[in-house]
From TrEMBL:
InterPro entries recorded: MraZ, MraZ_C, MraZ_dom, MraZ_N, MraZ_sf, SpoVT-AbrB_dom, SpoVT-AbrB_sf
Homology family: Belongs to the MraZ family.
GO cellular component: cytoplasm; nucleoid
Top-rank lineage group of the source organism: Bacteria
UniProt protein name: Transcriptional regulator MraZ
Taxonomic lineage from the root: Bacteria, Candidatus Kaiseribacteriota
Any one GO BP annotation for this protein: negative regulation of DNA-templated transcription initiation
Length: 143
């Protein structure tokens, strides 16, 4: 399981270091794709195979499901983690997520997310501000 958040910097070749705590579980070949909320998703090959099968089942379904399947499947790239622990982020994905110099790499259970630093800070601030209301709306309060 991937947990925690880390701030890393892109090098001039669009490579970013994967936190060492994530590397073993990700493996040497990973899949990077579009994510929701304009971040990128990074999966181990094994986890991606499960995700891809679920999306593939939707490619002939209703339009919204087809669209999401296409976004995630056609927008995915297999990339190698190099000996220095870096992955190359394709330019189109870097642009999609508005990534420039610094990025937050966040562990989110079965995947890793890559966020533009400012977007992550805004997103987390909003979640922190509204967390109590979210829990109440979901009916998940525990006393």
């Amino acid at each position: 399981m991937f947990l925690g958040e880390y701030l890393h910097t892109f090098d001039p070749k669009n490579r970013i270091s994967v936190p060492s705590k994530f590397r073993k579980d990700l493996g040497r070949v990973v899949v990077v794709t579009h994510g929701l909320d304009h971040c990128l998703y990074l999966y181990s090959r094994k986890a991606w195979e499960k995700e891809a099968q679920a999306y593939a089942a939707e490619v002939n379904g209703i339009a919204t499901r087809r669209g999401l399947a296409r976004l995630f499947l056609a927008g995915s790239f297999e990339v190698e983690v190099d000996k220095a622990g870096r992955v190359l982020i394709p330019e189109n994905l870097k642009s999609f997520a508005s990534l420039t110099e610094k990025a937050v790499i966040a562990g989110v259970a079965d995947r890793v997310e890559i966020w533009e630093e400012g977007a992550w800070k805004k997103y987390i601030a909003a979640i922190e501000r509204d967390a109590d209301a979210y829990v109440e709306a979901l009916g998940a309060t525990k006393n």
